[in-house]
Each structure stands twice: as structure tokens, then as C-alpha cells.
């Protein structure tokens, strides 16, 4: 197991490196023409490699990547998310975001969160995304702006993201090695050297009616929500109201300031 | 009632001016225009006490001597008064086995056996009373009193009025202690003290840059001499194991000028160490008494107030060097080379200063160079190494104090009347304006020139006689032989004061002694002719000054304003008193031989080595004639040139030619010193300043620059771009988590 | 107890989405894309929460995700208002337009000159106009008598 850990560690490191490189290549860096195309192609390739390696690491660590359905929707989500981030045009970015949301909804459904899967699509893709598009309509200059073609610190950002992902993968993978490895510090060595805890069975059968996988999922969710979390629901409602009023209040001050409407092309600070 | 014995009176002489000085400092501002009272009263009291001591001691020594032994032989007198023990470090010094500190020669070997192997460093505040001290005290306090009275008028409107009198009183205290001290350490302390008082008085008007510079120059040049004195003191300690003049019963160590050592013919070190000590003491004397090569400060010291010049730079402080050499006569007697050096230095200085004085146009400068010249005479006399030479030197010191103080005070009177102008080319014919000053100045000039029967004649004649007797020893041998019976000192060692030095068969055998040694005769002949020529020059420049100032058509410069009248009585009073002294003192002291005999009773001069050399007094008509002739020649030449201001100098300039500019530029000594000493020091100072600025300050600035640089580097991260801030934050968090993960791994 | 593989998968996906969203916020300068990336991060969190909820077998994660959704909506609304305000002041949606809090001795960061973009203006085929275009009443479409 220890050898496995170290081999997995190096695999993880390679995966992190590939991921960082691919993200960096994919991010807009102010190139154009053939250079840009080759960067993007190479970046995509590396990204696929990185993804594979991450999955392999997770698999080695704890049996990840075994359900095919899940794999597909997960792929959609991740690819959509990646595309959101690296696309030059913000409109395309928004469209890719929609795809990512769809993928996330799929993941949620596979995980058994029926209501949330649908709610995600409704709220994100239906409401939030449309709002973004409206803003883009109001505020987008013609043609590609310079700031869309240049990233801020691409290398550092890519490295940061990749390292974060590597760490998270490591920790998530460790979870599968047994409860002892999760948080106990001194006994970690013993635990790793000692046992090979078998994979635990699926969560215990529902006995108290709080199992999300039961048949009447939404009803139970509603009961839970308006039962135990009634106060939070009401607070959320108030929050929505406040944000509505707040946004109107902020917007209504703008014309008084420069008197020329929203489109004032003053020089920046 | 008060116990007014000699020891108490001796303590009073320096103590009273000290009290006066302290009172003036404390109450000066309060007293305002009356601030002179504490100082004048205290100095007057000290003068009274000093004269009492002098008269009492004189009576005791002279009459007692004559009465007891039935001959005119002097008996040494000293009386020591210890005020308190200042330092006593037992076992401070272990002298080598054959050191003179413990072995005083064959006769006293027995005593040496009983001496301790290690000597203590023991310094007490010891005052001594002996003839030399008594004479010096009287001169210091009397001239000090007259100068203080004069200053009441001269410094009348000066804002620093109290300060001046405090300084004069402090000076009188320091000088009195210097001449009364009985160990070398005290002498050194008060040597410095008089130097400090001189500095403060020269720089009295310290806001004038030239005065401040002159004060600094005086102090620094004196410092060179003080260095010599310090090293001499060290050598004396190492050689003799004590710094006391007197034998100290407590520590059983014979003093350097104590009776035990004085009576021992081999009691003093000769050779390299002895000559070194003597030459270092000579260096100190040159510094204080402004002899070559340390004479440069005295002419500049004329920046100070004229009364200060009269007191310090004419009568008293500059005579400290003469006093020191006279006091250390036995030391010099053991080193003939040092003696002749003293004479050479003295005579050369006299000549050079006289030459420079002939072309000066500033009246006070003339008098300054005259002082240097006369001091040179005194040293020339001391360096002859015969009793006559020593007593003549001190005699000249006394008379010089009177007439030089008189001349300076007269110059001050002129300056006061002329509104601060002292350049002789700008005024003339002042005898009509200031008759009393003119008369007294004339008397002083006659005394200075050495015209009979004024004071300078006798003292200068004795000096020339001393030089002559060394230059032509054969001519004096006969004379000496006749008077030998009178001359021999019968010296015995008593067990209690007054001491008498032990007689010795060897004393008679060495009656030939140094005084009749013909080896240096050629040198002394040269010195004699130099001195004679200097006498001529002295008369010349003195009367040149007199004629330029007081004869001819009356001219008064504009600065005089309404001041151009005779000085008030408070200023002319001292002038008259000094004029009387200058007239009669010479004749009085010489005709009775009182001073000479009195001085011969000083232990330093009564020791066999000195006393056996010659009579303490002599009068040779032929030498007197030579001297008078030289003086007359000088006066006549000055009259030809300047009487009635017929010519204002072009005559002499044409006569002297390039020599005149050499004299006028003071033989370029100042320039040489500036180039050799001052300039390199300035360069060194600039280098040090540059080092300090660049390296020392640079280092400090560097240390300060480091945080600045670090800050500037770090500041570049604050770009205002929030995404960069976010990147930094995320990276930082990741680093922490990574570290945590690393520490939590296996 | 060890989580099920599905849960672990879910956690991985959530981590990936989160990391990708993080990169987007740090790297992209367009304010809209930044906010989209933020929403991506929230989605990643949602996935993780649901996965944990599945692992524990209770509703905690679900409930939290509902509230996350709510808050995301509010946040998006207000954020977009601010984006429009920023656009009104500077004329562009650039995060790097705001630099006034920099150190006073630093110069303003300006983009380097970029080569001309490869997004060519699309040239759509056009027909020569035939006939006469009707005059357009500018104000007509603003006031209609019927909706």
C-alpha cells in the first residue's frame, strides 16, 4: 500500500502538471493566428490527458470512475466548465456555461438529487444565465475587446488551480483508504501499513424516513425543508426581496450622476 | 589671635585671588559696574601678604646669614607647607637597582641600604616658601594688582566686565600656585591652568574671529610645550622615583630638588636621560615663554585686551618658563649640553625677535616682539650655568616685569585714547595730547633700552657679564679668584629648617667647576656678540616706537572721536607707580646686592654645583660701557629716522631692502608651520571627514536604505489589480495547505 | 465508513468544477466571465454537498444546496447591477480597469499591444436593395396603441 501511495503520488504529480500546462495553454494569452490554434489544440490534448490521469489516480486511490453514466455526465460538466473559462468570447462563454449546468444537473440526478437537478437547470440556466446575457447585450463592445484576449497571470492561475485540484484529489482519494486515514494524524502510518479496509457497503437502508434515495424524494425534501429549516426558508425569502430592492435602488441612482444614461464612455480611473 | 606665621601667609597668597575669582563669578552680574571689587581687593590683599613674606624672608635670610656665619655666604632656605595629601599609592614603582631613585652616591650608600625597595606614588598639595618663590609671588601679585586697577578704567564699558576680572583673579591664583608648588605634578597642573587662563583672556572678545583664532593658536602652541613637560615629568618619575622638589620625611624618598640630593655631587642623572629631561623642560619653557620655535603665538596674542597682555604676556605667564629652568638649575648643571642649548635658544630668539620688531608698525606687536626678545635674554643668561647667570636672569625677570607692564599699559592708554587704533602710522605727536602717558612710556623705553640708571641697565648688564664670563673665562678667573672667599658657599646639612646643605671637601676642589670650563667659550663669545647687537636693536625699535608715537606733528585718527585726551587717573595711576618702580628698582636691588644674595639662598641655586661657580652679582665697567654704547647707538639711529616724524619708514625700507620684507614677514615661520603642520593636519581632517561622510554615514544610510529597498520591492505587488491580489491569496492558501499536507503525511 | 465510489466520483467532479471555476476567476479579465466562473465554483460545491448528503444518508446537503441556489441568484442579481455600474464609469467590462488603489509611485498597468484579432468581421452576403424602404417612424414603435 505504501508503494502504491508513492506511485500514486507521482502519478498525481504528473496529472497536476499536465492539468496546469493544459489550462495555461488554453487560457487566452494575447496570441493570434496559427500560434493560438496550435496552443488550443495542444492544450485540449493535454487536458484530456490530465483528466484521464486524475481519474486514474482517483481510481488507484479508491475505486473512482466505475460508473459509466456518471462518467459521461461528469465529462460534460467538466468540459463545459473548462470551456466556459477558456473561451475568448463572453457570449460563447455563457453558452458553454449552459452546457456545464446541464452536465451538473445530470451529475446531481445520478447522485439521486432529483429536485436539485431540475432546480439547478431552472435557476442557473433559466434565470441567472439569461441575466448574464442581458448584461452582455448592454455592455459588450463590438468586436473582441483586448481584455478578452489577455489573461491575468495565466501561469500562476493555472498552477494554483491544478495544485488545488491535486490536493483535493489526494484527500478525496485518501478517504477511501479507511476512516483512520481521514483525519487521525499519529496513527496514520500504522493505519496505512496495516489494513486494507474493504469498500464499505452503500449507506444503510432508510429507517427514519430521511433517506434521499427513497421514492417520494421531493415530498420528503419539502417536509425536511419546511420542517426543520423553516426559519432559513423564510430568511432566504427575505434575502431575495432585499436583493431585488437593492439592485433596483442601485440602478436608480445612476442617471442622477452623469445624466447621460448607462452608456457613458468616460475614461477609467 | 590669628597664627600669621609664614606657612599661613604662604597659603593666603594663592587662596585670596581664588576666593576673589569665585566671588566675581558668583556675584559678577549682580555687582554690575562694581564687579571689580572682589578681584581687586583679593589681589591687593595677596600682594600685601606676598610683600610681607618677601620682606620677612629677606630679612631672615640676609640678615640671618650675615649674622650667623659672619660672612656673606648664602644659606639655603626652604619651608614646605603641605595642605593635604592628594594621592598616595603605595608600592607604585620599583626602580632598578642602580637607579638614582634609591642610590644617591657613595656617601649615602649607608642611607640607601635602609631605603624601601618599592616607592609609593605620593602627591600632596605642597607649597614651598623659598627666596625664588617669594620673589616671583611678589612680582606676580604686585603687577597683577596694578593691572587690575588699570583695567577698571580700560575695560570700563565692556559687556564682559565681570568675566575679565574673574579671569585676572583666576590667573593670579594659578600663577601663584605654579611658583609655590613643590612637586612637578602640581607645576604641570598649574602650567596648564595658566595656559587656560591665557587662552580665555586672549580670546576675551571671542566674537572677533581673529581673537578666537589667536587664542586657539596660543593654546595649541603651548600644548606642544606642555607635551614636553609631560614627558619630562614621566622621565623624572622614572629616574628619581618621586615628583617632589623637597625631601619627604613620610616616604623617605629624597626629592628631586631636595636637600639630600642637592648636596650629593652625583645626585643628578647626566647622559642621554638627563639631557632628555633638560631639553624637554626647555621645550616646555619655550612654549610658555615664547622662544624659538614656539614663539609664534605671542604676537597674535595681542588680540586680547591690553591689560591682559600686560599681565600675562609681558610680566607673569611668559616668565613661567624662566622660573622652571631656574628652579631646575641643578638638573641642568649635570648636563652641560643642555645648558648651552638653553643659551643658544635664548640668544637666537632674542636676536630674531629684535630683528622682526624693527619693522613692525603695530605698537603692541613691537612690544610683543620685545617681550620675546627680553625673554630670550633671560634664557641666554640662565644657560650660562653660573650663579651669576641664574640670578641675573631672575633680576631681569623682575625689572622686565615692571617696565614691560608699564609699556603695555601705556600702549593700552594710547589705544584707549585713539579709539582702538594702534597702528603707529596713523597717529603721531601724542605727547601733547597725553603727557603722563608719554612720560611714563619714555621711562619704560629707557629702562627697556638699558640706559642707566633705569632698571633695565643693571639687569641687562649682569646678563652680558654672565655671557662674557663664559665667553672669556680667563678674564674672569682672576676676578673670581679675588672674590672666591666670598663666593664659596659653606653648606651644611641640618636636621630641621632652615636647612643648610652639607659642605664637602669636593666642593672646594670643584670650585673651578663649570664656571671656569673653557670648552664652550667660543659659543658663548658668539652669543655675547649676538646679545650686544640685540641690545642695539632693542634700543632702536623701542625708540622708533616712541618717536613715531609721541613726537612730530599731532595726528589723531577719526576713530578717536572725542576720546583723544589723557586717560583717567585710574589708568595713569598704575602707569606712574610702574614708572617709579622701573626707575628705582634696578638701582636699589643692584646696589645692595640684595636680590642676588637673596636668590642665592634658594636651594636650587645654593647647591654646590651652582653656587661654586661665580659670584651672584658682578659689575664690570667695561661691559657696562659696551652695553650703554649699543643702546645709545640704537637711540641715535632711531632719532635720525623718526624723531619728529621726519621720515615715516621709507628710509629704513630702502636701507633694509629685501631683509625688511623678511623681517616684516616674521621670517616666514608662521607660513612654514602652516605648510608643515597645519596643512597636513587639515588634509588629514578632510580625509577623516570624507571617511566619516562616505563610509560611516554611508553604512548608516545603507542600513536605512535596506528597508527602503525592501519596501520598494514589495510595494510593486500593490498594483491595484484585484485579480493579482486574488492570485496571491490563493497561492498563499495553497502553500499553507501543502505544508499542512506535507507535515501530515506518513 | 468509507464512502461509496459514486460519492467519491461526485466529490472528484465537484473538486474539478471548483478548481476550474477558480482558474476562471483568477485568470479571465472580463467581469462577466469572472462571475460565470464564480457560479461554476458554486456548482462544484453543490455537487460535493449532494455527494456528502448521499454518503450520510440525510438531507443536510440538499437543504444547503437549495440555499446556495437562492443566494447565488441574489448574488448574481446584485453583482450584475454592479457590473453595469462599473461599465458606466469605465466604458468596458475589464477587471483591470480599476487600479486606483495601487501604490502612488507605480504606473498604471496597460495591456501590451496585441496583434489584430482573428475574429474577422463577418461579411454577410447582401442583396442590392430593391424598391424603396419605408420611412421609419422613430417614435412609432415606442408608443403603440395596443400591445
Name a few traits of the molecule.
heterotrimer; B: 746 residues; mainly alpha; 30 helices; 3% strand; C: 147 residues; Helix Hairpins; 3 helices
Derived from helix and strand composition plus strand pairing, the structural class of chain B reads mainly alpha
Shape of chain C: extended
Estimate what percentage of residues of chain C fall within beta strands. Answer: under 5%
Give the C-level CATH assignment of the domain at 3-97 in chain C: Mainly Alpha
Spatial extent as radius of gyration of chain B: 31 Å
Second rung of CATH, namely the architecture of the domain at 3-97 in chain C: Orthogonal Bundle
How far is the first residue's CA from the last residue's CA of chain C? 63 Å
The greatest interface here is:
A-C, 125 and 92 residues
Low-confidence stretches of chain B: 67-73, 106-111, 481-516
Topology diagram in text:
The complex is a heterotrimer of chains A (269), B (746) and C (147).
Chain A: H1 2-26, H2 34-62, H3 68-86, H4 90-110, H5 114-139, H6 146-149, H7 154-175, H8 179-183, H9 188-194, H10 217-228, H11 230-258
Helix pairs in contact in A: 1-2, 1-7, 2-7, 3-4, 4-5
Chain B: H1 6-31, H2 36-69, E1 79-93, H3 109-113, E2 119-129, H4 131-154, H5 161-180, H6 184-202, H7 209-240, H8 259-262, H9 271-289, H10 297-300, H11 306-315, H12 320-327, H13 329-333, H14 336-357, H15 363-382, H16 387-417, H17 435-449, H18 455-471, H19 473-487, H20 505-509, H21 521-550, H22 569-591, H23 594-600, H24 603-606, H25 608-611, H26 621-642, H27 650-656, H28 658-664, H29 669-715, H30 722-744
Chain C: H1 5-27, H2 31-56, H3 60-90
Helix pairs in contact in C: 1-2, 2-3
Describe the protein in words.
The complex is a heterotrimer of chains A (269), B (746) and C (147). By secondary structure, chain A is an all-alpha fold. Chain A contains eleven helices and no strands. In chain A, helix 1 (2-26) runs antiparallel to helix 2 and helix 2 (34-62) packs parallel to helix 7 (154-175). Chain A starts with a helix and ends in an 11-residue tail after the last helix. Chain B has three domains: 3-664, no CATH class; 671-715; 719-746. Chain B is mainly α and 746 residues long. The relative contact order of chain B is 0.09. Chain B is 68% helix and 3% strand. A two-stranded antiparallel sheet of chain B has the order 1-2. The relative contact order of chain C is 0.09. Chain C has helices at 5-27, 31-56, 60-90. The radius of gyration of chain C is 24 Å and the shape is extended. Chain C is built from three helices and no strands. Chain C has 147 residues and is an all-alpha fold. Chain C has a domain at 3-97: Helix Hairpins, CATH 1.10.287.3510. In chain C, helix 1 runs antiparallel to helix 2 (31-56) and helix 2 (31-56) runs antiparallel to helix 3. Classes of the chains: A mainly alpha (269), B mainly alpha (746), C mainly alpha (147). At the A-C interface, helix 2, helix 3, helix 4, helix 5 and helix 6 of A face helix 1, helix 2 and helix 3 of C.
Amino acid at each position: 500500500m505504501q508503494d502504491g501511495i508513492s506511485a500514486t503520488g507521482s502519478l498525481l504529480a504528473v496529472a497536476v502538471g499536465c492539468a496546469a500546462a493544459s489550462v495555461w495553454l488554453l487560457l487566452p494569452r494575447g496570441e493570434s493566428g496559427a500560434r493560438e490554434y496550435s496552443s488550443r489544440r495542444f492544450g485540449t490534448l493535454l487536458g484530456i490527458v490530465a483528466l484521464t490521469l486524475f481519474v486514474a489516480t482517483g481510481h488507484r486511490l479508491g475505486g473512482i470512475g466505475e460508473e459509466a453514466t456518471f462518467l459521461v455526465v461528469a465529462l460534460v460538466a467538466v468540459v463545459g466548465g473548462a470551456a466556459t473559462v477558456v473561451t475568448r468570447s463572453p457570449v460563447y462563454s455563457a453558452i458553454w456555461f449552459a452546457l456545464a449546468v446541464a452536465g451538473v444537473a445530470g451529475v446531481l440526478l445520478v447522485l439521486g438529487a432529483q429536485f436539485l437537478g431540475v432546480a439547478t437547470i431552472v435557476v442557473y440556466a433559466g434565470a441567472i444565465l439569461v441575466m448574464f446575457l442581458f448584461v452582455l447585450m448592454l455592455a459588450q463592445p463590438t468586436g473582441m475587446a483586448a481584455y478578452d484576449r489577455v489573461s491575468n497571470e495565466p501561469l500562476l492561475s493555472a498552477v494554483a488551480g491544478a495544485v488545488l485540484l491535486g490536493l483535493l484529489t489526494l484527500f478525496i482519494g485518501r478517504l477511501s483508504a479507511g476512516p483512520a486515514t481521514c483525519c487521525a494524524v499519529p496513527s496514520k502510518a500504522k493505519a496505512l501499513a496495516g489494513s486494507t479496509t474493504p469498500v464499505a457497503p452503500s449507506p444503510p437502508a432508510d429507517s427514519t424516513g430521511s433517506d434521499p434515495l427513497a421514492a417520494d424524494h421531493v415530498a420528503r425534501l419539502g417536509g425536511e425543508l419546511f420542517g426543520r429549516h423553516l426559519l432559513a426558508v423564510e430568511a432566504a425569502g427575505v434575502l431575495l426581496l432585499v436583493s431585488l430592492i437593492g439592485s433596483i435602488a442601485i440602478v436608480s441612482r445612476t442617471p442622477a450622476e452623469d445624466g447621460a444614461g448607462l452608456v457613458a464612455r468616460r475614461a477609467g480611473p | 589671635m590669628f597664627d600669621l606665621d609664614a606657612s599661613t601667609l604662604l597659603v593666603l597668597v594663592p587662596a585670596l585671588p581664588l576666593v576673589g575669582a569665585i566671588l566675581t563669578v558668583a556675584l559678577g552680574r549682580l555687582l554690575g559696574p562694581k564687579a571689580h571689587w572682589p578681584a581687586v581687593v583679593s589681589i591687593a590683599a595677596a600682594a600685601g601678604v606676598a610683600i610681607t613674606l618677601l620682606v620677612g624672608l629677606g630679612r631672615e635670610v640676609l640678615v640671618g646669614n650675615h649674622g650667623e656665619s659672619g660672612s656673606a655666604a648664602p644659606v639655603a632656605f626652604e619651608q614646605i607647607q603641605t595642605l593635604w595629601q592628594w594621592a598616595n599609592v603605595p608600592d607604585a614603582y620599583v626602580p632598578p637597582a642602580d637607579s638614582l631613585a634609591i642610590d644617591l652616591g657613595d656617601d649615602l650608600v649607608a642611607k640607601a641600604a635602609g631605603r624601601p625597595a618599592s616607592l609609593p606614588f605620593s602627591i600632596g598639595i605642597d607649597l614651598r616658601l623659598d627666596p625664588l618663590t617669594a620673589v616671583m609671588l611678589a612680582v606676580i601679585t604686585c603687577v597683577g594688582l596694578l593691572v587690575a586697577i588699570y583695567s577698571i578704567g580700560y575695560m570700563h564699558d565692556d559687556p564682559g566686565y565681570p568675566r575679565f576680572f574673574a579671569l585676572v583673579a583666576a590667573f593670579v591664583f594659578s600663577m601663584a600656585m605654579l611658583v609655590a608648588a613643590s612637586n612637578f605634578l602640581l607645576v604641570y597642573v598649574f602650567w596648564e591652568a595658566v595656559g587656560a587662563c591665557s587662552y580665555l583672556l586672549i580670546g576675551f572678545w571671542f566674537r572677533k574671529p581673529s581673537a578666537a583664532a589667536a587664542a586657539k593658536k596660543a593654546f595649541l602652541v603651548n600644548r606642544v610645550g606642555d607635551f614636553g613637560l609631560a614627558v619630562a615629568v614621566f622621565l623624572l618619575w622614572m629616574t628619581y622615583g618621586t615628583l617632589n622638589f623637597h625631601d619627604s620625611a613620610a616616604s623617605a624618598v629624597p626629592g628631586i630638588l631636595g636637600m639630600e640630593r642637592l648636596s650629593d655631587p652625583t645626585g643628578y642623572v647626566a647622559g642621554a636621560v638627563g639631557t632628555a629631561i633638560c631639553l624637554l623642560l626647555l621645550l616646555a619653557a619655550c612654549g610658555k615663554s615664547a622662544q624659538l620655535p614656539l614663539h609664534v603665538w605671542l604676537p597674535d596674542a595681542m588680540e586680547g585686551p591690553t591689560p591682559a597682555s600686560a599681565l600675562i604676556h609681558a610680566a607673569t605667564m611668559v616668565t613661567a618658563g624662566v622660573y622652571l629652568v631656574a628652579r631646575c638649575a641643578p638638573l641642568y648643571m649635570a648636563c652641560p649640553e643642555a645648558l648651552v642649548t638653553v643659551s643658544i635658544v635664548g640668544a637666537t630668539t632674542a636676536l630674531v625677535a629684535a630683528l622682526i620688531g624693527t619693522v613692525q608698525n603695530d605698537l603692541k606687536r613691537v612690544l610683543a616682539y620685545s617681550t620675546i626678545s627680553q625673554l630670550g635674554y633671560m634664557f641666554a643668561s640662565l644657560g650660562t650655568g653660573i650663579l651669576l647667570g641664574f640670578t641675573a636672569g631672575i633680576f631681569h625677570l623682575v625689572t622686565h616685569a615692571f617696565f614691560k607692564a608699564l609699556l603695555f599699559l601705556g600702549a593700552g592708554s594710547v589705544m584707549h585714547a585713539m579709539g582702538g587704533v594702534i597702528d603707529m602710522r596713523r597717529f603721531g605727536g601724542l605727547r601733547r595730547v597725553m603727557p603722563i602717558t608719554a612720560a611714563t612710556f619714555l621711562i619704560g623705553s629707557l629702562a627697556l633700552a638699558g640706559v642707566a640708571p633705569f632698571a633695565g641697565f643693571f639687569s641687562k648688564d649682569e646678563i652680558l657679564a654672565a655671557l662674557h664670563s663664559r665667553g672669556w673665562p680667563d678674564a674672569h678667573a682672576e676676578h673670581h679668584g679675588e672674590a672666591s672667599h666670598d663666593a664659596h658657599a659653606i653648606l651644611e646639612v641640618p636636621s630641621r629648617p632652615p636647612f643648610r646643605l652639607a659642605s664637602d671637601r669636593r666642593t672646594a676642589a670643584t670650585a673651578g667647576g663649570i664656571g671656569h670650563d673653557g670648552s664652550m667659550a667660543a659659543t658663548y663669545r658668539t652669543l655675547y656678540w649676538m646679545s650686544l647687537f640685540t641690545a642695539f636693536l632693542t634700543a632702536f625699535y623701542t625708540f622708533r616706537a616712541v618717536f613715531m608715537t609721541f613726537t612730530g606733528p599731532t595726528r589723531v585718527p577719526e576713530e578717536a572721536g572725542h576720546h583723544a585726551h589723557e586717560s583717567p587717573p585710574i589708568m595713569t595711576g598704575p602707569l606712574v607707580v610702574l614708572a617709579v618702580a622701573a626707575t628705582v628698582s634696578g638701582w636699589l636691588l643692584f646696589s645692595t646686592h640684595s636680590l642676588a644674595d637673596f636668590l642665592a639662598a634658594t636651594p636650587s641655586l645654593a647647591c654646590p654645583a651652582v653656587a661654586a661657580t661665580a659670584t651672584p652679582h658682578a659689575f664690570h665697567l667695561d661691559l657696562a660701557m659696551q652695553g650703554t654704547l649699543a643702546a645709545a647707538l640704537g637711540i641715535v639711529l632711531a632719532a635720525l629716522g623718526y624723531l619728529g616724524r621726519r621720515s615715516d619708514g621709507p628710509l629704513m625700507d630702502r636701507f633694509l631692502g629685501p631683509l625688511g620684507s623678511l623681517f616684516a614677514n616674521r621670517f616666514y615661520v608662521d607660513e612654514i608651520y602652516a605648510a608643515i603642520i597645519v596643512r597636513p593636519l587639515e588634509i588629514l581632517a578632510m580625509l577623516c571627514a570624507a571617511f566619516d561622510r562616505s563610509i560611516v554615514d554611508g553604512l548608516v544610510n545603507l542600513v536605512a536604505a535596506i528597508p527602503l529597498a525592501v519596501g520598494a520591492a514589495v510595494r510593486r505587488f500593490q498594483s491595484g489589480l484585484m485579480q493579482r491580489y486574488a492570485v496571491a491569496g490563493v497561492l498563499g492558501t495553497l502553500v499553507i495547505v501543502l505544508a499542512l499536507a506535507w507535515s501530515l503525511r506518513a | 465508513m468509507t464512502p461509496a465510489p459514486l460519492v467519491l466520483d461526485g466529490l472528484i467532479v465537484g473538486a474539478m468544477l471548483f478548481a476550474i471555476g477558480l482558474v476562471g476567476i483568477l485568470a479571465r479579465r472580463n467581469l462577466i466571465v469572472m462571475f460565470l466562473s464564480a457560479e461554476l465554483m458554486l456548482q462544484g460545491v453543490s455537487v460535493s454537498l449532494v455527494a456528502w448528503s448521499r454518503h450520510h444518508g440525510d438531507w443536510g446537503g440538499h437543504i444547503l444546496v437549495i440555499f446556495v441556489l437562492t443566494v447565488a441568484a441574489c448574488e448574481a442579481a446584485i453583482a450584475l447591477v454592479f457590473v453595469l455600474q462599473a461599465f458606466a464609469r469605465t466604458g468596458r467590462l475589464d477587471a483591470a480597469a480599476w487600479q486606483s488603489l495601487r501604490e502612488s509611485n507605480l504606473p498604471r498597468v496597460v495591456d501590451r499591444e496585441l496583434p489584430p484579432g482573428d475574429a474577422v468581421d463577418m461579411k454577410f452576403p447582401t442583396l442590392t436593395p430593391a424598391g424603396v424602404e419605408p420611412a421609419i417612424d422613430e417614435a412609432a414603435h415606442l408608443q403603440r396603441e395596443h400591445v
